[in-house]
């Protein structure tokens, strides 16, 4: 395939990656307006965010396995159209039930594209250019993840929340027709579709019970018997899934892929980094609009500091990774991450906006430089590229889902600790309580980055040691 065609295909897949990822975060800032316009309580309106993320986690492995059997491009293109239809339906929604149904349609389409885009890219590009190609795609994915609150704020300042969804329709259709014209034609398959349905059901119950426990636990407390039972059910289903996959002839997920330390650590560190990104998505809009009293438009412009730096640093990180290795580049990124996390952990309103913008810019630089996709895909064998792409997307969405619940739980736990009573809303009369909760939450985010850093140091040391011994 010619280089021009390769880059056009990369653009088509990356545009869809951007849309499906941004829709996981852009809705956060619109939840108050959705709550008012759809006549739904705030806690129910937040389902619009969580339903999308959780369903993607449920479906990714299924579509990854299916794409290995019937073709990644077919799944990707079909998913693009389903996502566009769901976006249109979300924009036209007049009540919460309709919105939730359309978000489910969106999530089905998004999971189909997320499960296949990495596999398509590694199939199209030669191995010596995987780093830069996945780096470009990574910049779209990461910008989509962190650009949500900023872009959402700008849209809400000039238009209604409906356009948060409508904007996907023309972009999605353009990406689909790009792909239809240029994607290589896949051979028709006559093989019978094989799926480990008992294993998949165990996986589904594990994911759903885990997230129901987290979201319900936020409302009623995590020590309630029903919440503990749900966590135990999630653990039991996970154990059943692992047991099933290790003892079935055609597993849904070949667990041998995790024997590669580079792959496993790539998945874990990606999940940790995406979890930390949601601390910004959930906490920074409150800090800018409620504590510093900026309008949604100005808050949106300030939050754009992250994606602006991310756009440039991701492909550059990919190019450097092609020469020195994705793990080493990611190690440098994690060290940079510590600087903005320290700023967010200590910042006070009296510091001025310059320190916050500096922290956001450094965060964008580190986030783009972190090469999670090349690290994961580069450590998976050729036979695992399809399912590896699904696992990479699953790690990202699990990270975002965990970050969504963890950041708000820690924030309100810190606020409640300062207040001496249970608080689950912004303490308008006591902004110092919020600052305390924010610092508490970011302290945990700092610890997550340190954990990822320790894992990558161990991996790089192990790889260097093997090189030395082989000389």
UniProtKB/TrEMBL annotation:
InterPro entries: EmrB-like, MFS, MFS_dom, MFS_trans_sf
Pfam families hit by this protein: MFS_1
TM region(s), chain numbering: 48-66, 78-98, 161-179, 200-221, 227-243, 263-288, 294-317, 329-347, 353-370, 391-413, 433-461
Parts forming coiled coils: none
SUPFAM superfamilies referenced in this protein's UniProt entry, alphabetically: MFS general substrate transporter
Matching CDD domains: MFS_MMR_MDR_like
Domain named Major facilitator superfamily (MFS) profile: residues: 9-466
Highest taxon of source: Bacteria
UniProt cross-references to Gene3D superfamilies, sorted A to Z: MFS general substrate transporter like domains, Multidrug resistance protein D
PANTHER family in the record: BLR6921 PROTEIN (PTHR42718:SF46), MAJOR FACILITATOR SUPERFAMILY MULTIDRUG TRANSPORTER MFSC (PTHR42718)
NCBIfam families named among the record's database cross-references: efflux_EmrB
Protein name, as recorded: MFS transporter
Biological classification of the source: Bacteria, Bacillati, Bacillota, Bacilli, Lactobacillales
